[in-house]
């Protein structure tokens, strides 16, 4: 396909709109050149003069850098003018539906980001200064790093120093054991760190787009370690990285062979009737589907295996998918399915590229400048290390997920979607919900995550964290932190902005708010459970083997 993402189709509609109002467009072009002329007239005299102190004029490099800085200033003004003009052109286009306008604006922004003066050597004064200071060494190092990235087939600059961390060595090191393994996942149980523990364990369901250790980064940021130190027994699913033989693995398999089996193992090990279940991103989506499936079954609600459920940055209603929506159309999904037919999975590279494009300013161009123009070493960051450790998606599961959820939004519809021979109706879920959204999330916008609260009638508590998709969830307490959150119950018909208007801003991490909420739904303390049991014996030390598979 020439245009699998429907980019050209959206801009073709913008062009048609322009052709239908040629006089207005002509005037806008005239306005553009007038603004460019005005900027040139204001900045050009400074390009021809020297405002350096007399003592600096004898230094040729200082004089040269001064001219470069002024040239860069004019370039930034030109870039700002083009930015406003191009986006205004798209925003004022007529006869575009919201989807086409969003897609055209998104790709216009990608073009604007790519053309930022800082991304080019001769309009980046700091790059030139480093070049002079290092006698060309900075650019030589940058070109070497670019060659390394291209040679390994990664056509985007690295976002982190991948040699700084090793799973099981200095990341994902909280002590635990793999107590169950099947073809889809390993279940890790973590050792207790307190004399007594809460009776009900927590089962964490991570996204399978990346690996489980987002919950167990370094000791300073480990969510698992925090929960363990609060007296909770913690289980985490570690998903297998799919290969071609797993092409037929379905979304329902992740529900039943993955999440439901993990819940069963945790209950059996801890000898309790229920667990606290929590899912992150797509892990939360599969948990939500499982909750609806369980509540549609023949058993009584009080006898279901999950006492309460928590969603971290999760969409259940996909009507507001944020910037990810620009990639969703019948045509783009067909193109993705063609790609998957060849390998049996969606390759991790495509997923990595997609998520980096969503945050291109910070995840592409900032690294491009730092790594290639400045010759700097990529930063050492546990979160960015995890973020770059992408996994593949099985063909059947990925196709179902894109079509049923993103394209048709069937999970939010009553009795439309069928999983495990039961129709899914989120309204039937009766267990209390704790949902967390993040203010700066471009993958799961917080207002979209809030919509889950309108789909169910059970008690709901919503938390809005001030950070992004990852930092808003992996949100440890630290002294002097600027992080903040808002938390409160949700009324039955309340919209997100009304809810937010009546919440009080709080400083710090929302993690303690969650553990306080959990203790309200199972606060009995007892001796820590054994590591594994006869049915689910310890197999090996965490982090297990699936997390190390590439």
How would you describe the overall organization of this protein?
This protein has helices at residues 7-19, 22-48, 54-57, 60-91, 98-114, 125-133, 137-151, 223-229, 251-270, 282-295, 330-343, 348-358, 360-373, 382-387, 395-407, 446-450, 452-455, 496-501, 511-519; strands spanning 176-181, 185-190, 197-198, 202-205, 234-239, 275-280, 306-312, 345-346, 393-394, 418-419, 422-423, 433-438, 460-465, 484-489, 506-507, 525-526, 540-541. It has 550 residues and is of the alpha/beta class. The protein has an eleven-stranded mixed beta sheet, sandwiched between helices. It has a two-stranded antiparallel ribbon with strand order 3-16. It has a two-stranded antiparallel sheet with strand order 8-9. Helix 4 (60-91) packs antiparallel against helix 6 (125-133). It is globular.
Profile the largest sheet: 11 strands, mixed
**Over the alpha carbons, how many angstroms does the gyration radius reach?**
26 Å
Q: How much helical structure, as a percent, in the residues?
A: 40-55%
The gross shape turns out to be: globular
Beta percentage is 5-15%
Distance between the termini: 29 Å
Provide key terms for this protein.
single chain; 550 residues; alpha/beta; 11-stranded mixed beta sheet; two-stranded antiparallel ribbon; 19 helices
Question: How would you summarize the topology of this molecule?
Answer:
Elements: H1 7-19, H2 22-48, H3 54-57, H4 60-91, H5 98-114, H6 125-133, H7 137-151, E1 176-181, E2 185-190, E3 197-198, E4 202-205, H8 223-229, E5 234-239, H9 251-270, E6 275-280, H10 282-295, E7 306-312, H11 330-343, E8 345-346, H12 348-358, H13 360-373, H14 382-387, E9 393-394, H15 395-407, E10 418-419, E11 422-423, E12 433-438, H16 446-450, H17 452-455, E13 460-465, E14 484-489, H18 496-501, E15 506-507, H19 511-519, E16 525-526, E17 540-541
Parallel strand pairs: 4-5, 4-6, 6-7, 7-12, 12-13
Antiparallel strand pairs: 1-2, 1-17, 2-5, 3-16, 8-9, 10-11, 13-14, 14-15
Helix pairs in contact: 1-5, 2-4, 4-5, 4-6, 7-13, 9-10, 11-15, 12-13
